[in-house]
Design goal:
- The protein has 15 helices and 10 strands.
- The strands form 2 sheets. Strands 3-2-1-4-5 form a 5-stranded parallel beta sheet. Strands 6-7-8-10-9 form a 5-stranded mixed beta barrel.
- A hairpin with a 5-residue loop joins strand 6 and strand 7.
- The chain is an alpha/beta fold and 360 residues long.
- The longest helix is centred in the N-terminal third of the chain and has 24 residues.
- It folds into 3 domains: 116 residues, no CATH class; 125 residues, Rossmann fold, CATH 3.40.50; 66 residues, OB fold (Dihydrolipoamide Acetyltransferase, E2P) (Beta Barrel).
Length: 360
């Protein structure tokens, strides 16, 4: 800040000194000193306003002003045949020299967004439909559900498989751990299945980022380069990509959104698979993997029963349904009390007609 202040003071002194030497306003020395100092301070005020302006606005105004000045000079030179002694011609020349640079400055500053690199590239880009890239992650390939989504046609655009993802998938398939090896081979089979699908465009990208070691960060940079979206079911990659401004298509979120809506009070048929954590509870699973916790269902393990939904809990891991099993045998078994049975079995006394007539 001290350096800027010193430069401004020197600038004001230089303008004042130039006014003292040339004396353009009046022969009086004090008037020229004051005029030079005021002009210097005025220019500093203009500089402080321009400092807060964007670079693209300044560049646009500069280019527009230069173009306007060139047009004004060209039009002025084209009027060589006019009588320069006429005051109207002199005014016309002055007006042209003022209005065209002014229009260039204003229009150039207003349209400065076209000087941004992305907008300039768009000017020379093909006007046809722009390709949509969907970059596949290792986790979503191993998961396998992406093949079903592609087969249904809900995922449009070009599926991009980076080379570093293929390399990571191959390392998993060559692992000494049998479980990892099976998962890696399953991922390679899924890729072959997707490539054989008709109507699905698959591209293997050789773009790599040697300065970045993590595969997730490489995926984010590739998505930025291609202006595409990452397809994954990795929760951490989803969050990091969103923080960095990259759009993500999460298969888990898609699966959760497609699960059937269950409301409390509805009846549903489930198969009790195992015992629950609490007393007299049973646990069942729907076809989409949703856990159903059923009260009073411990005796029904290994059976398909009808349950009444009591509540639904939505968590980050998925949806849980709580229900209650009403044993039909116990519900149908209504035992009447002894007092009620005696009353119902007692004969109603008969009132003679004469007594009935007398009571009227």
């Amino acid at each position: 800040m001290a350096w800027f202040f010193l430069v401004r003071v020197l600038f004001v002194l230089a303008v004042t000194y130039a006014a003292v030497l040339t004396r353009p306003f009046h022969t009086t020395l004090e008037l020229n000193i004051a005029a030079g100092a005021v002009l210097g301070l005025l220019m500093i005020g203009v500089e402080s306003r321009l400092r807060s302006a964007e670079v693209t606005h300044l560049l646009g105004a500069l280019i527009g002003g230069a173009i306007g000045l060139g047009l004004a000079k060209t039009i002025g030179a084209a009027l060589f045949w006019a009588d320069t002694a006429d005051a109207r011609v002199v005014f016309l020349h002055s007006f042209i020299l003022l209005v065209f640079p002014y229009l260039g400055l204003v229009i150039g500053a207003r349209k400065s967004e076209w000087l941004q690199p992305a907008r300039m590239v768009a000017l020379f880009r093909d006007a046809g439909p722009q390709k949509r890239y969907r970059i596949l992650d290792t986790s979503v390939i191993i998961d396998g559900r992406i093949a079903d989504v592609c087969e249904t046609g809900f995922l449009d655009g070009t599926l991009v498989i980076p080379q570093f993802v293929l390399k990571e998938l191959q390392l998993v398939a060559d692992s000494s751990d049998s479980m990892k090896r099976n998962r890696g081979r399953r991922g390679l089979d899924i890729l072959q299945k997707i490539q054989k699908m008709s109507g699905v465009e698959v591209s293997v990208s050789d773009v790599d980022f040697p300065d970045i070691r993590e595969v997730d960060l490489k995926l984010i940079e590739l998505a930025r380069t291609l202006q595409g979206k990452i397809v994954t079911n990795d929760f951490n990659l989803n969050k990091v990509a969103q923080l960095r401004g990259v759009e993500v298509l999460n298969i888990n979120e898609l699966a959760n959104s497609l699960k059937p809506v269950v409301l409390p009070g509805e009846l549903m048929k489930v198969f009790i698979l195992k015992e629950g954590k609490e007393y007299n509870q049973g646990v069942a699973y729907l076809d989409d993997g949703t856990m159903v916790v059923v009260d009073n269902a411990r005796k029904a393990i290994g059976k398909t029963i009808d349950v009444v939904v009591t509540s639904v809990l939505q968590t980050t891991a998925g949806k849980m349904i709580f229900g209650r099993f009403i044993d039909p045998a116990a519900a149908a078994q209504v035992v009447p009390g002894p007092a009620a049975t005696a009353v119902e079995g007692r004969a109603r006394p008969q009132i003679p007609p004469s007594a009935a007539a007398a009571g009227k």
